[in-house]
Design goal:
single chain, alpha/beta, Rossmann fold, 7-stranded parallel beta sheet, 5-stranded parallel beta sheet, binds flavin-adenine dinucleotide
């Protein structure tokens, strides 16, 4: 029986679906933030650890190293986000285990795990074999845990301070209320917008649709018109909405890597040769400054908003 540790908030419990792919797994969950631990017992989790305080990445890594060495977990699973992309490499280095990111599937044959993941900027699916311990990172919405009711025991952990690194200060960043990974509808903006104030056009469209706002890397990282909470792509958030509407985004592989699992993709771009048109369900070759306000107006009439 392989021991599996899933780490995340209560809304990341989709990852238990990945843990269940291990043969007869014993699943433990390190629950970050508040949440009803008994909910995890519906999916075969037998032990839930909670942390007595919010922790920075370095402390979580040290806490994990400790937990792994006492419990001898074979598979450790986390969501793919910036917090874990900082935490997991530290823990992996300290436990000498490999990290596989953007995992699609897992099969087990004896002591060997066969892991399939998105690779080469999402242009290929790569299957690798690993023996012994492995860290897997994946978007929680990709998996659906099977119900299997168990009795859960809980234990509160004291976060461990990392050795060799001293956190001098921590300053909370102003946080948007967006959790774009969970959004069902996304209007995403790119460099086709000429000025920050023009994003208003996308905000209005998103409001009528009840959508969240996503963006390409330059909008968040270079221009800083939106916070990183909105950033979609290889180095941003992985999203999986029912509708992804890309406005003024060229569709480079690094952007596609974050949204390829969207159900329906609509692209609005004035350049008929924009690569995004090869990766969409509906393509509109039009100037966004003309098309977006007209679409918003029409949707307002239809939806009576
Ligand atoms: C290691 C690495 C990681 C990266 N990670 C990410 C990532 O996570 N996410 C990400 O998005 N990118 C990422 N990138 C950057 C990526 O390669 C592209 O540079 C970026 O996605 C381009 O953003 P864009 O489409 O908004 O801008 P552009 O490529 O400049 O495209 C703008 C588009 O707007 C269109 N347009 C212009 N005017 C109008 C108009 N009036 N109406 C309609 N359309 C118009 C143009 O035709 C063009 O297609 C990464 C790059 C590297 C090297």
């Amino acid at each position: 029986m392989a021991k599996v540790l899933v780490i995340g908030s209560i809304s990341d419990l989709g990852l238990i679906g990945l843990a269940q792919k291990v043969e007869s797994p014993e699943i433990h969950y390190l629950l970050l933030g508040s949440g009803d631990a008994t909910q995890l017992g519906k999916y075969g989790v037998t032990k839930v650890y909670t942390l007595s305080a919010q922790v920075d990445e370095a402390s979580l890594a040290e806490t994990l190293v400790n937990l792994i060495s006492t419990n001898n977990y074979s598979v450790i699973i986390t969501p793919v986000n910036k917090y874990f992309k900082t935490t997991i490499p530290i823990a992996a280095q300290k436990t000498s285990a490999p990290v596989l990111v953007d995992v699609l599937d897992l099969k087990q044959g004896g002591n060997t795990f066969e892991v399939t993941l998105n690779g080469v900027g999402n242009r290929a699916q790569v299957t690798v074999k690993v023996t012994d311990r492995v860290f897997l990172m994946a978007p929680p919405a990709r998996f659906k845990p099977v119900e299997k009711v168990t009795t859960v025991t809980t234990e509160s952990l004291q976060p461990k301070a990392i050795t060799g690194i001293k956190v001098v200060s921590t300053e909370e960043k102003p946080k948007g209320k967006v959790r774009i990974e969970d959004a069902e509808l996304i209007v995403s903006v790119g460099r086709g917008f000429k000025k920050q104030e023009d994003l208003k056009l996308a905000f209005e469209l998103a409001e009528v649709l009840g959508a969240e706002i996503g963006c390409s890397r330059p909008i968040a990282a270079d221009l800083k018109w939106l916070s990183e909470d909105h950033w979609v792509g290889l180095s941003g958030h992985k999203v999986r909405p029912k509708l992804y509407m890309a406005v003024g985004i060229s569709g480079q592989p690094q952007h596609l890597a974050g949204m390829m699992e969207s159900k329906t993709v609509v692209v609005i771009n004035s350049d008929p040769n924009a690569p995004f048109f090869k990766n969409c369900d509906y393509g509109v070759v039009e100037d966004l400054y003309k098309f977006v306000p007209a679409l918003t107006k029409k949707l307002r009439e239809i939806l009576k908003k």
